[in-house]
Each structure stands twice: as C-alpha cells, then as structure tokens.
Amino acid sequence: MRLLNYIALSLFALVGFVSCEMREEIKSDKDGMEMGLLELSVQAKSPVVTKATVVSTDDFPVTIVGKSVDGEEVERNYDAVADLPESILLPVGTYSVVSHTKGKLDKQMAVPYYKGSSDMEIKKDITSSANVTCRMQNSRIQLKYSTEFLAKFTEWTIMLDDGSETALSVQETSANASTNPAPIYWYFGEGGAETVTLNIRAKTVEGNTVTMPPYVFKKEDAAEKYDDVDNPNFTGGEALIIDLKPGNEEDPTTGVVKSISVTISVIFENHNEVVDIPVEDKGETKPDPDPDPTPDPDEGEVSVILPKDFTYSLSGTPAKPSSADAILKASAGIKSALVKIETDNVGFKTTLQAAAFDEPGALLSGANLIKNQGIQKLFDSLELKEADGSEKKTPVEGVTEYTFPIATFFTFLDMFSGTHKFYIALTDMNDKEVEKVLTITITE
Questions:
Q1: Are the beta carbons of 263 and 393 closer than 8 angstroms?
Q2: Is 76 helix (H, G, I), strand (E, B) or coil?
Q3: Are 118 and 97 in contact (CB under 8 A)?
Q4: How confident is the model at residue 288 (pLDDT cuts 50, 70, 90)?
Q5: How many CB atoms lie within 10 A of CB 288?
Q6: CB under 8 Å to 414, separation ≥6 — which residues?
Q7: Quick check: 54 and 31 in contact, CB under 8 A?
Q8: Confidence of residue 252 (pLDDT cuts 50, 70, 90)
Q9: Cα–Cα distance between 190 and 184 in angstroms, integer?
Q10: Span 302-443: which CATH code?
C-alpha cells in the first residue's frame, strides 16, 4: 500500500510539473518573448445555397504572417489544414491567416478555386480562436447546346471577352460535344468585369459559316435584383449560363440555318435562381441620338472597326481567337485599304520582307488590299469562304464595306513570338482617310 501511495504521489507531482512547464511555455519562449495560443479552423463556403456537397478544405495550405509586439516578423506555413495542430504557439502580436485551394489561381481552370483570410490578435497567456471562411474566387461558365444545335452545326468557336488581356476561347465539334459539357471556371479578376462580350462563329452541316454579331451584356442588366448583390461587376462565386440553339432564320430555298439563338443567364452567389440577362446586339444599327440636321452630302462615313488587342500563346494557353476581323466601311466607296505590319521579331520581319504580296516587302510598308493577287492566293490556299458559302475575295474599288480576316496571318504568326502590330489605313473616294492599329502579342 505504501508503495502504491508513493507511486500515486510521484505521478501527481510529475503531472503538476508538466502543467507548470506548459503554462510557462505559453507565457514566454526561451528568449523571454511573451506568447499566446491560436486555435484555427478553415472552411469553404459553397456559392449556391441549395448545394448539399460540403467543400473539403483538408488539403488547403495555410499561411500565418504577422508581427509581434516587439516588431519581429513572424510566419508559419502548413502544407494542409489536415496538418494543423490543435493549437499554434505564437508571439503576442497581430496576424493574418490565409488559406486557399491547393495550387495557384489561373485565369481558366477546370475546378473552382477557393480562398479566404482572417485577421486576429494574439494576446498574452490567452488562447485565441480564428475561423477562415474561403469563398469561390472564379466563376462557373456553363455552355449548353440543344440537340437541334448539335444536329445543325458541325463545328463552332465561342469567344468570351471580359476586357482583360486574355479572352476565353472554346472550339468544339458536334462529334465531341454534349448538350451539357463540363463547366469552365473563369477568373474575372480582382475587381471583376463590368461588361462581357460574346462572339460566336459556327459552320453548318451544309458547310456554310454563320457568324453572329458580338453580343454585349452586363450583370446589372439581369432581369432580377437582390439586396445582397451590390457589386455591379461579374465576380467570383457566380455562374454564367450560355444556351445556344439554331435561330429561326432559314434560307427559304435550301432551309439552311442562317442564325443562332442565344440565351444568357446568371446564378448569383448565395442564390439558386437562374436569372436571364438581356443581350445587346453590338452589330445592330441604331439611330443617331443627335443627328446633324444639315449633313454635308460629300461627307461620307469612313471607319475601321477592329477587335480589342489580344495575347495568345504558342503553347495554346491562352488560345488564339478563331477570328480577328477588321470591318472597313466607306459610304462614298473604298479607294484604297493599306495593311502594314510592324513586328519586333527579326525572323518574322525577314519573312515579310521576302513575301511577295504583289511586291516584295509590301506588308512592311503598306500593301493595298484592292485586287491584291498575293493576298487572294493566301485566301485561296486557306479555302476561305464568305458567310453565304462563296469564295473569299479581296475588295474591289468602290465597295462600301469589306471584312478583312486578319486571322489568315495566324499561319505565319504561329511561327513567331513577339509583338506584332497591324496598321490598316482606309481611304474613300473623296480621299478621306482613317487609320487604326491592332496589336497581337504572342508568347512561347
């Protein structure tokens, strides 16, 4: 019995000694710095209120950065939430905790990306608690194709431009596509996107090309509003749904589809209702709100409409756009349309110097598109077609409108990285001139 009492007393003393040591450890480290404990939890918030699936954060890395009251920089890194201890010993001070989906946030992803942060203060001899809630940073882009669309079109390209340097490009064929393909997760940027432009180009089963005018839409134009949705820009956690069907317009003789019906809708974060967004046809002709009451009959419209400057990679990410059309208009008739290319790639410059677009090096100084045989041969080699299925031709003098497909030069550009500028100078029959430039940047 004495032996048992002795053992019990010894164990009690040992436990008391260990507890005392732990209290001293919280109070100060070996250098005498005052300390406190942090109990940390990390969770991810699903953006859709009806989604029952819990987002696991077990593999989310965690970073704790801050500064002690003594001014010392402090940082703790953990590879995964699952590796976090029950409590973390930290010097007294202020800290920020950041956790996110494993890996980095890219412009385009196949999965959602979550991230969250929390600020806290560690106090002397106190166990503080902090909870980091990670929310979705990118948006779900869901394309939908009706069975009729898949039956009428063999291939198509969809371009979604949010105004950033990179546009979302989807190239698909009916042989590989489903009515409800896997979603794309797209990062609109830290501030989001105020306006998104949709371009669609598709080829019918008969071989005709249908190109829809750009559609421009805004989040604030949604048919329904919510009090808790106060950001007018498209941001992370939302879902954009683009539904494509064959248009009602058909060729009266052949029955060939001539248009595409587009429906765009959004699901806001923390909601589950699908809300339609009216789209604006960018190509629609609208009346001048303040027309000139006495227009000059000799003063005609001269304009060059170009796509936004863009960047694509030779590796395919980001992908190059399927088209890059320059629309030339001159109500008095086109007299000349000069195309000049400036490049910082020596190899491409040498190629342009040797290429004979009616005369060697013409594209470096300005090649006239009017009846240009060299460019016509390029069109023929690529078997380019007009929207009605006829062969693509270079413009003739006097036409009032012409679409020049800059994308035909991708054949050459794909061999040369760098910055390439396409200058287009349009002159009408009254010698009125306008010049615009499109900058294409190609990375390795």
A1: no
A2: strand
A3: yes
A4: very low
A5: 6
A6: 314, 320, 442
A7: no
A8: low
A9: 18
A10: 2.60.40
- DSSP 8-state secondary structure symbol assigned to residue 202: E
Strands 73-78 and 260-267: unpaired
Closest CA to 82 of 131, 113, 42, 116: 42
Specify the pairing of strand 108-109 against strand 73-78: unpaired
Q: How far apart, in whole angstroms, are the C-alpha atoms of residue 135 and residue 115?
A: 6
Whether domain 25-135 has CATH 2.60.40 = yes
The third-level CATH classification (topology) of the domain covering 139-281 is: Immunoglobulin-like (2.60.40)
Amino acid at 247: G
List CB contacts of 316: < 8 A, sequence separation 6 or more.
none
Contact (Cβ atoms closer than 8 angstroms) between residue 429 and residue 297: no
Q: Going by C-beta distance under 8 Å and a sequence separation of 6 or more, which residues neighbour residue 18?
A: none
Mean pLDDT of the chain: 83
Taking alpha carbons only, the member of 340, 404, 337, 336 closest to residue 366 is: 340
pTM (two decimals): 0.61
CB 155 within 8 A of CB 176: no
At 36 the pLDDT is: 95
What gap in Å lies between CA 225 and CA 339, rounded to an integer? 47
Element (H, E) at 246: strand 239-246
**Cα(349)–Cα(367) distance, rounded to whole angstroms?**
15
* Sequence ranges of the domains in the chain: 25-135, 139-281, 302-443
pLDDT grade, residue 22 (50/70/90)? very low
pLDDT at 53: 67
- Band the pLDDT of 253: cuts 50, 70, 90: low
Q: Band of the pLDDT at 426, cuts 50, 70, 90?
A: very high
pLDDT for 31: 60
CB burial readout 321-337, b (16+ within 10 A) else e: bbbbbbebbbebebbbb
Mean pLDDT of 60-68: 96
pLDDT given at position 169: 85
